[in-house]
């Protein structure tokens, strides 16, 4: 079955089970969240070897009797990534790509992966990405992988690589993943979708609808690894002012931002081209709040999702919510001012793409 037909509108992000965004991620947390997510009809999970220990915790949870007794492997979509090992370490070599995939299969305790992405492709030379994609295509032919994709922040690089893949392998990438550019703060991804379609890409995953937690009342998340968020201080201040404005209007910035991203993704989708939203989840409360928010804007025609069919809004309710959101969104964009549309530097001046290493300090 083609990927646009099986990829759901909402995907559970596995970064919430990592040291980057959560303090002390653990097996009990992962099992509780996964059980509740599956109960609510959420049947797609995106993670990465880089989101340590996410793969391990998800594998333990998905192999627990509480889940295996109720769900078979073909009832959910499992996606992971290769290439990025640490904040300043990448390995796109054929040997490592293969090893990483086999390690992910072992960690996730599965016989196959629905999707494998090359992770944060703008940090490495493009020729290395092309070579890694070729390895993943081979592994797809061997039955270890169903679909192959690339991920990153820089849409210009993602689009260029998508065209190169089609030219060099005479087949397109199945999917691409981009983060924080289909949001209330930056809607740039929407302008690039036609180019992905020309390259034969049939699915786009839009992750970080809150721009890695920037668009919320409490500010950016800080996990065990400290404050890694790329937003400059000016954007952080503007986001806090926007959160205060939305709160004064009786709403919540995180909820507004999530509704915006989900509704935007659905408006850009078609039967043969799917745009989905990946939500980072860390707790059951967060899961339930986010899905309640999603219900406000997802159409009831997404019949494969039980919770949508059961709790989908009426047409009048959707129209009313859209009108309110448009007014609030306009106010947020006014407050963001010059920060609206701002792109995070990726990889930034401190990174040497050729060597895949930080630029040595001159001090």
TrEMBL record:
Pfam families, A to Z: Aldo_ket_red (PF00248)
A single MF term (Gene Ontology): D-arabinose 1-dehydrogenase [NAD(P)+] activity
InterPro entries the record matches: AKR, NAD(P)_OxRdtase_dom_sf, NADP_OxRdtase_dom
SUPFAM superfamilies, per database record: NAD(P)-linked oxidoreductase (SSF51430)
Listed GO CC annotations: cytosol
Keywords noted in UniProt: Oxidoreductase
NADP-dependent oxidoreductase domain: residues covered: 9-305
GO BP annotations, alphabetical order: dehydro-D-arabinono-1,4-lactone biosynthetic process
Protein name: NADP-dependent oxidoreductase domain-containing protein
